[in-house]
Structure formats: structure tokens, C-alpha cells
Design brief:
It is built from no helices and 21 strands. About 4% of the residues have low confidence.
């Protein structure tokens, strides 16, 4: 909007609406009556005239204004009494972030809107150091959730997301969050924990996926002493025990071998008393 250009109100009040990052301006002029405007305080300030509901205040020079955001109203006090005047419908819906989960190939986000009816929103995203851009449009479901899955991601990216909601011509932003897209899991073998080990043989490793995989304990001649199937554990880091039926190999130097999808990793393990 162009804003209240040319209007010279006899009385004027303004309150800051933190949830919408905007200034709410209330004015009164004998020739025009009351006007309510919102000035967004984003990168490009925008004036928007609002339609407020409530009692006519008239000249407000002796009144004080207070924003009551949880109850969606602005209260005016003054003129020698404690009567409050209500202006409904000027405070944006309350939206909060519920969760943001990242995997190497996607980011799943969920927000909650405390609003009786459906809420439409635009999802904005930006890479670190870059400008915001729209990546989708979503609408709240029957439970108030606004869910969005972003599959245009890459491991190592740092991304920020927010919701943009337009109410009465004013665009406000909610639920901003930052996520780091993790690197894809890869096959790795940390070895015995601790090493040397005097107790049960506990081994730490990571799998690339849930394909078949084996963890073996070999003697220095390459003979298998113990073996465990570990592919069912799935991608990611794991720690398991190779002790079998209470049997512990003799003290000495051994080799641990982790195998999956044609790849093998070998490291040393020392067992002590």
C-alpha cells in the first residue's frame, strides 16, 4: 500500500507487533474517522490499511495503546476510566516450528499453526550467505500441521527455512530454522574399543547402508576366529560385541575385518589378560 499519505490525524498511536515484525498505527481525524495501518519492517517496508473491529475511540490523545498478541487484540486505556477497546483481526496467526530433520537426501520440516481454519503459507529457503527464495506452497492439515519435504539438497549444505504468510495484505515470517544436511554414511571401522582390550571384544564401525555385511575377527594367519552378520543394523554408526557364547580368544594380536558390498576394511586388535 501507499500508506496514510496526506492524512494528518489529530491523534495517533503506534504499537510494535513482534510476531509479525510490523508497526500497527492507529489514527483519528474528524473528517475521516479512525484508520488502522500496518507498516511491515522487512527488507522492503510496506504500508497496508487494516479493517479493525471494535468501539469508536474518537480523539485518542489521552489514550494509551497496548498489544495483547495472545488474544489477537489491541487495548486502549484512558479518558479517566479503565474501559478497554478491542480491535480484532489485526494480529497474525501464531505459527511455531515443530521439527526439522535432515538426511543426506532430504530435509523434512513441520510447523504448527494455532488457527481454527486452514492456513496457507509459502516456504522460503536460502543457502548460507544467499538470498531467500520460494521453494513451495503448503496448507495446514486438520491438526494444524504444515509439513514440507525438500529433496533438492546435497550433503554438507547449510540451509535456512521460514514460512511466509500473508494476512490482510501484510506478509509476515514464522518458524525460521537452520539445518545442516549430513554427509552420506560410508563404510568405516574404528576398531576395538578400547584397544588393547582386556575384557569382552567390543567393536565400533559404520555401515553405508543396510545391505549384507560381516564383521570378522581373524588371527594373524588369516583364519577366522569369530564372525557376526551386521548388515541388518542399517546405515550409520554402530558398536557391537564379538563375544560368542562366553568364549574369548586367547591373548594376542588379531585382525578385525569389516566387509560390505565388495568393500573391505581391516584393522588390528590386541587382546590382553
Amino acid at each position: 500500500g501507499t500508506g496514510p499519505v496526506g492524512l494528518q490525524p489529530i491523534s495517533l498511536h503506534a504499537v510494535y507487533d513482534a510476531s509479525g515484525d510490523r508497526l500497527l498505527v492507529f489514527g483519528w481525524h474528524p473528517g475521516f474517522g479512525e484508520e488502522v495501518w500496518a507498516l511491515s519492517l522487512g527488507e522492503t517496508p510496506i504500508w497496508t490499511q487494516l479493517t479493525a473491529q471494535g468501539h469508536a475511540l474518537g480523539a485518542m490523545s489521552e489514550w494509551s495503546a497496548v498489544l495483547d498478541a495472545p488474544r489477537d487484540r489491541v487495548l486502549f486505556f484512558g479518558a479517566g476510566n479503565t474501559e478497554a477497546f478491542y480491535f480484532g483481526g489485526i494480529v497474525p496467526v501464531e505459527v511455531s516450528l515443530v521439527s526439522a530433520d535432515a538426511t543426506p537426501d532430504q530435509v523434512a520440516l513441520s510447523w504448527y499453526a494455532a488457527e481454527a481454519g486452514p492456513v496457507a503459507a509459502r516456504v522460503d529457503r536460502r543457502l548460507a550467505g544467499q538470498a531467500w527464495r520460494s521453494v513451495g506452497e503448503i496448507t495446514s492439515d486438520g491438526t494444524g500441521r504444515l509439513n514440507f519435504v525438500d529433496r533438492d539438497v546435497a550433503p554438507g549444505w547449510t540451509l535456512e527455512y521460514r514460512l511466509a504468510i500473508v494476512e490482510q495484505g501484510v506478509e509476515s515470517y514464522y518458524g525460521q530454522t537452520r539445518v545442516v544436511v549430513p554427509a552420506a554414511p560410508r563404510l568405516s571401522l574404528a576398531g576395538a574399543m578400547p584397544n588393547p582390550s582386556a575384557g569382552p571384544l567390543v567393536v565400533s564401525f559404520a555401515l553405508a547402508d543396510d545391505s549384507p555385511a560381516t564383521l570378522e575377527l581373524l588371527d594373524v594367519a588369516g583364519r577366522r576366529v569369530m564372525m557376526r552378520e551386521v548388515g541388518a543394523l542399517g546405515a550409520g554408526s554402530h558398536t557391537v560385541s564379538l563375544a560368542g557364547a562366553g568364549v574369548r580368544p586367547a591373548v594376542g594380536l588379531y585382525l578385525l575385518r569389516l566387509s560390505q558390498s565388495g568393500h573391505r576394511i581391516v584393522t588390528k586388535a590386541v587382546l590382553t589378560r
